[in-house]
Amino acid sequence: MIQKxxxxxxxxxxxxxxxxxxERVSAKDTYEKGLIYICPYCGEENLSLRKGDKNAxxxxxxxxxxxxxxxxxxxxxxxxxxxxxxxxxxxxxxGGVPVYxxxxxxxxxxxxxxxxLSLQSLELLKGAKIxxxxxxxxxxxxxxxxxxxxDNINTKWINVSIADNRKTNPEIKxxxxxxxxxxxxxxxxxxxxxxxxxxxxxxxNHVFVGHKYYIISGNQNIGKVPGxxxxxxxxxxxxxxxxxxxxxxxxxxxxIISATRAAKxxxxxxxxxxxxxxxxxxxxxxxxxxLGNQLVYxxxxxxxxxxxxxxxxxSYHSSTGYLCKINSKDHYRIIYPEHWKCIYTAYDxxxxxxxxxxxxxxxxxxxxxxxxxxxxxxxQFKHYFELANDSNExxxxxxxxxxxxxDFKIKSNIPxxxxxxxxxxxxxxxTNKVEGLQLGMTIILDAGSYGQKKYYIVKSQKNSKHDYSxxxxxxxxxxxxxxxxxxxxxxxxxxxxxxxxQVKKWISSGLIPVAAQKYIYNEMRK
Length: 526
What we know:
526 residues, mainly beta, Immunoglobulin-like, eight-stranded antiparallel β-sheet, 7 helices, 40 strands, 12% helix, disordered N terminus
């Protein structure tokens, strides 16, 4: 709790979190100076406990000159560069640029994935070089997506800037230039758990009973916690100093079975809150380009399904620069991608310390939203969306022989997503490159109102001079099948599976049209 207004300079921090237990304690009721205290607002450790007059008991941050953007959002921070803007604070408290834990079989790695921007913002960055830590990235494609590998366990915050002094706008500043929260608290962090990895959940946010999450630990074995089940999945190698020395950390799936006291305490030590009911928000219509927690629309109106829990409510960040609350009774909500930049859940953390009620507002971004509708008229703008191989050769839609399959590039000048399916099941969704293809998969390039293209991964066809499809039309008087027909079936079953299926039916029944038998005899004589 903060004396005076929550975000005015000169405030006193009245309570903190004990690192070892996750317990919130009041400065006026605490006398143990040997504990490690954590700021509940910015997460900084090693707060000092100050005891004074009756109204002056407080915790204080250690003095330093290189505070991160997250630390500058803290109510106790008093300098001129304090972050007081509500929108900037929302993005910074969510860790800046989203961080994703990738899974590749039993090996893991971590990338910061820059949220997609609107076309107006991308136009401002056209040809720009984005500096992330010491690396430069060119903004060259329509999506503007940048992937930056995180591999140092000691980094607290990574700065992001534009190499030249070009004009920006609030969307660029808030979604990109606020920076990236580093990995110095990796062993406390919790990640979402999907088939290929998951996004990092910012600290002080909810995790839910019945869900699975990824966690990372330096220990090969994690102690048992009633209500929580751990399963080791693999490892990740990270640098732990500036001399290039790396260390292996172990990745586990943490499955929360029930909200036991021990489970709540374990989650609280990680600076998260365990809840039993989840707030949900799902994009319903029209189809949009989905990359993790990013939605890219080329329509000005979209529909969402919203269902909030008792304690949480939905809000959004608009292009006008305001954070706006959504009526939680509206389960089906119209949103406006041209003006909305993100949708987030918000709630208040209530705790009682020595009979005194403590309240901290928490905000968790669920979806980043970008509008990328082309501004040209139909006469001025000719769209395209295609697959290309490593040699930039365009792949025709239809069947793709297995022998020519590789990681295909998506080439387009409109928003498009590639959906990969096996039968009726979706196994992947891509926006830049289609990877991990297997025999029998279907690729659907979906460009919304611009249409679709479908590709089918099929067996490689042997060189053949013949088309046997004429057999499919042959009917009439029948005769008995013989060894010649069976031999013909054996020769064509891989090259012409549809025709072979019909020949197999004739073999099974023991009868074949006379015209078909003559056709087969002629083919076998060649």
